[in-house]
């Protein structure tokens, strides 16, 4: 099963390689990973998506926590959360397909951020599954290039 | 605030931490530090290979419980230390390793003797640092010692660029270290303690399975109290030997691949397994699903990642073993049950255990004048009263040491358990002897392993460090040969040492004493003589060449599927 894990870490050189080294060294897989500074510039937040049974996820969170530079580890997918990913897609946009492309990205609330005689570059955000749906629909039209950020996620704020 | 030269600050930090002896080997990147060490009262031991420096610091740490310190130069000096750092990491030994690094402006330029040692050692240190700013130097060293010795201990490496060591740095006042991101948990959860104790009161066939955590946390007394009070038989891992007195009636010796018949049977039949500071290593469990299949499992460990890693446990207790055992002893003492009566209910179980031992004792066949290695270890045990510091190499020699030396106290068996590093024993013996100059320190060695760090004979000689080497010389890479004999049709591929030195002459070339025994009747007198000589002594025992280590659980089998003698 997929798990989205959020890790707060010291914003120092080499910290990311401690995390990735842990995953490669212990044979855990990383489906996506994204990392950037938090409000406090000495601390980074890393979101990673991984998969495994309960025992593996338990080991992953414990092993992450054991890294000295790691401050906090949360398996966000344990509770309610929002997740977003952003993608840039360069898709073929010739006279016959332009309208079709625009229609599709409109449905998915994307926007065109760059135009060339033969392509549109489209920006879209959403859950990983929404992004995948857009890609699947645009693929037959002709995707030239694609860059995804990987998922970022946040637990939902308590309702009361 | 006071400003001092970086190297002076390092030395002052070491002294603050109580360091009196360090092990090292110089080079360009650490020459400033050596220059200032020259005037300091820290005792520096010059080894002959950097692996030896780190193993010696590790031996020092294991016998004292303090943080061992090694100092290596950049590049090849640092990489030569890596095997020994990994050795300490696998056995959770507190070390601080200082490595020289090229000056900060050159880092990343493939400078002379530059290597990314922080990158290389990331997976085999508890933590590591590259000091990139002068103001970080002093806090980093203090934090490194703190991390090395607290929680589950381990080696911490600090990479020191040459320009920073030579620059002026602030020597700030030492304050207690509080790290938001690192707070090991020592105290057990009392609800878990209660659950565990209730299981202990109920159990009819309990077993204590004791690992290196008991030694590291100095909780042998609390463990012994629990075992004796409740009459629970004890088995130890290689790292746990000495955690409970080997001569006590409740001791079943070691368990696992080369464990005793009794210990492996007892675990297999137990209804409650109490794992204390042990990590369910594959050499201990054999086939995991057949390990303690009928038992409820209590697992005490300070490292949460150890718990339920290999074997799912019923009652996890994340805590320091000493705190957890103390809490259990207290709970039991005040629970209102008559503990003597509870303990008496284990009598049939202890009788069964006694029966196993009578049927299949740890033994070997003595064959006249051909020296049996087990006899050598037994004789050494008798002549030293089970109280010497024994280091080992790796292979059959190590297993015979574990099986036939009856360790009466903790911190007496100094051996590379997790990594199984050949070449560990001699430098570790030197480290141990530097810590306790009056103790008898013996490296039980194999002819293959001893050649991996034989150069340290010179170190032992130079520092008047009269360690003894008990070489169980079978002229084979014996443990590998044993596997080939049993599982590879006796095809002895690359395990016959076709050329070996004359070890007696070799010892003498280093100014040590070489003794040799070729007959059983000579063993005792050779050991006695070696123990009486105030010099480094190498005893070359020409043992039965194809003797095997038994019992043996073939890799991947259940631990009850033992091959016996
Ligand atoms: C550095 C290293 N290389 C290889 C091995 C694999 N190995 C384990 S035991 C052994 C044989 C050791 O031979 P020796 O020191 O003569 O000991 P014996 O088993 O004969 O007592 C070998 C090669 C190891 N443990 N460590
Ligand atoms: Mg040998």
Short description:
With 160 residues, chain A is α+β, with helices and mostly antiparallel strands. Chain A is built from 4 helices and 9 strands, in the order E-H-E-E-H-E-E-H-E-E-H-E-E. In chain A, the strands form 2 sheets. In chain A, strands 5, 6, 7, 8 and 9 form a 5-stranded antiparallel sheet that branches.
Percent in strands of chain B: 15-25%
Strand order of the largest sheet of chain B: 3-2-4-5-7-6
The quaternary state of the protein chains shown equals heterodimer
- Binned, the helix content of chain B reads 25-40%
Biggest sheet character of chain B: 6 strands, parallel
Distance between the termini of chain B: 69 Å
Mean pLDDT of chain B: 97
Helix content of chain A: 25-40%
* Bound ions, cofactors and other small molecules, one mention each: thiamine diphosphate, magnesium ion
Number of β-strand runs of chain A: 9
What's the overall geometry of chain A? elongated
The number of helical segments of chain A is 4
Overall average pLDDT of chain A: 95
From the alpha-carbon coordinates, what is the Rg of chain B to the nearest angstrom? Answer: 24 Å
Number of helices of chain B: 23
Alpha-beta classification of chain A: alpha+beta
Structure, described:
- The complex is a heterodimer of chains A (160) and B (565).
- In chain A, strands 5, 6, 7, 8 and 9 form a five-stranded antiparallel sheet that branches. Chain A has a four-stranded antiparallel sheet with strand order 2-3-1-4, covered by helices on one side.
- The model of chain A has no long low-confidence stretch (mean pLDDT 95).
- Chain A is an alpha+beta fold.
- Chain A contains four helices and nine strands; from the N terminus they run E-H-E-E-H-E-E-H-E-E-H-E-E.
- In chain A, a hairpin with a 5-residue loop joins strand 2 (32-37) and strand 3 (43-51).
- Chain A starts with a strand and ends in a 5-residue tail after the last strand.
- Chain A has helices spanning 15-25, 54-66, 98-107, 128-142; strands spanning 2-10, 32-37, 43-51, 70-75, 81-92, 111-115, 119-126, 143-148, 152-155.
- With 565 residues, chain B is an alpha/beta fold.
- In chain B, strands 3-2-4-5-7-6 form a six-stranded parallel sheet, with helices on both faces. Chain B has a six-stranded parallel sheet with strand order 11-10-9-12-13-14, with helices on both faces. A six-stranded parallel sheet of chain B has the order 16-15-17-18-20-19, sandwiched between helices.
- In chain B, strand 12 (272-276), helix 12 (282-285) and strand 13 form a beta-alpha-beta unit.
- At the A-B interface, helix 1 and helix 2 of A face loops of B.
- The structure holds thiamine diphosphate and magnesium ion (MG).
């Amino acid at each position: 099963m997929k798990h989205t894990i959020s890790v707060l870490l010291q914003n120092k050189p080499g910290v990311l390689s401690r995390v990735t080294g842990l995953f490669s060294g212990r044979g855990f897989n990383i489906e996506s990973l994204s990392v950037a500074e938090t409000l406090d510039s000495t601390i980074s937040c890393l979101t990673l998506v991984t998969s495994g049974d309960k025992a593996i996820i338990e080991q992953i969170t414990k092993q992450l926590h054991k890294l000295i530079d790691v401050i906090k580890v949360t398996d966000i997918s344990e509770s309610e959360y929002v997740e977003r990913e952003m993608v840039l897609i360069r898709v073929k946009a010739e006279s016959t397909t332009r309208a079709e492309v625009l229609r599709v990205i409109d449905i998915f609330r994307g926007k065109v951020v760059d135009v060339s005689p033969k392509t549109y570059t489209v920006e879209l955000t959403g859950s990983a599954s929404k992004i995948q749906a857009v890609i699947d629909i645009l693929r037959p039209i002709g995707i030239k290039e694609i860059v995804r950020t990987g998922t970022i996620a946040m637990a939902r704020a308590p309702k009361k | 605030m006071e400003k001092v030269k970086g190297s002076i600050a390092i030395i002052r930090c070491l002294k603050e931490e109580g360091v009196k002896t360090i092990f090292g080997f110089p080079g360009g990147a650490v020459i400033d530090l050596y220059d200032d060490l020259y005037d300091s009262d820290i005792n520096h031991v010059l080894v002959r290979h950097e692996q030896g420096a780190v193993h010696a610091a590790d031996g020092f740490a294991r016998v004292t419980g303090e943080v061992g310190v090694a100092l290596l130069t950049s590049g090849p000096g640092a990489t030569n230390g890596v095997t020994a750092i990994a050795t300490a990491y696998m056995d959770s030994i507190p070390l601080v390793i200082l490595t020289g690094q090229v000056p900060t402006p050159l880092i990343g330029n493939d400078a002379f003797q530059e290597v990314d040692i922080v990158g290389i050692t990331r997976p085999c240190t508890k933590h590591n640092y590259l000091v990139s700013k002068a103001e970080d130097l002093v806090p980093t060293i203090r934090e490194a010692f703190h991390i090395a010795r607290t929680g589950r201990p381990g080696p911490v490496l600090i990479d020191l660029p040459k320009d920073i060591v030579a620059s002026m740095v602030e020597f700030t006042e030492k304050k207690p270290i509080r790290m938001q991101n690192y707070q090991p948990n020592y105290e057990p959860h009392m609800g878990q303690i209660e659950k565990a104790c209730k299981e202990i009161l109920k159990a009819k066939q309990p077993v204590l399975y004791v690992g290196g955590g008991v030694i590291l946390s100095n909780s042998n007394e609390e463990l012994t109290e629990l075992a004796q009070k409740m009459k629970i038989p004890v088995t130890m891992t290689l790292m746990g030997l000495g955690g409970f007195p080997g001569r006590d009636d409740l001791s079943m010796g070691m368990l696992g691949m080369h464990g005793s018949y009794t210990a492996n049977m007892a675990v297999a039949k137990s209804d409650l397994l109490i794992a204390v500071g042990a990590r369910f290593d594959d050499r201990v469990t054999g086939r995991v699903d057949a390990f303690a299949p009928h038992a409820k499992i209590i697992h005490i460990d300070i490292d949460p990642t150890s718990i339920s890693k290999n074997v799912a446990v019923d009652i996890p207790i994340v805590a320091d073993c000493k705190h957890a055992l103390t809490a259990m002893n207290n709970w039991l003492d005040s629970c209102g049950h008559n503990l003597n009566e509870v303990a008496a209910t284990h009598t049939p179980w202890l009788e069964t255990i006694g029966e196993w031992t009578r049927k299949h004792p740890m033994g070997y066949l003595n064959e006249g004048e051909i020296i049996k290695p087990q006899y050598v270890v037994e004789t050494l045990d008798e002549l030293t009263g089970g109280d010497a510091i024994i280091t080992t190499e790796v292979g059959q020699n190590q297993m015979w040491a574990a099986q036939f030396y009856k360790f009466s106290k903790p911190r007496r068996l100094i051996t590379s358990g997790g990594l199984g590093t050949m070449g560990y024993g001699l430098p570790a013996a030197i480290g141990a002897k530097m810590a306790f100059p009056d103790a008898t320190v013996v490296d039980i060695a194999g002819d293959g392993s001893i050649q991996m760090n034989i150069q340290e004979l010179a170190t032992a000689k130079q520092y008047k460090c009269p360690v003894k080497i008990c070489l169980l010389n079978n002229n084979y890479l014996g443990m590998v040969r044993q596997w080939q004999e049993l599982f590879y049709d006796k095809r002895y591929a690359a395990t016959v040492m076709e050329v070996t030195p004359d070890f007696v002459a070799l010892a003498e070339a280093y100014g040590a004493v070489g003794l040799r025994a070729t007959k059983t009747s000579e063993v005792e007198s050779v050991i006695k003589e070696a123990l009486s000589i105030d010099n480094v002594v190498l005893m070359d025992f020409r043992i039965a060449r194809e003797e095997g280590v038994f019992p043996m659980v073939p890799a991947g089998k259940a631990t009850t599927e033992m091959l016996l003698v």
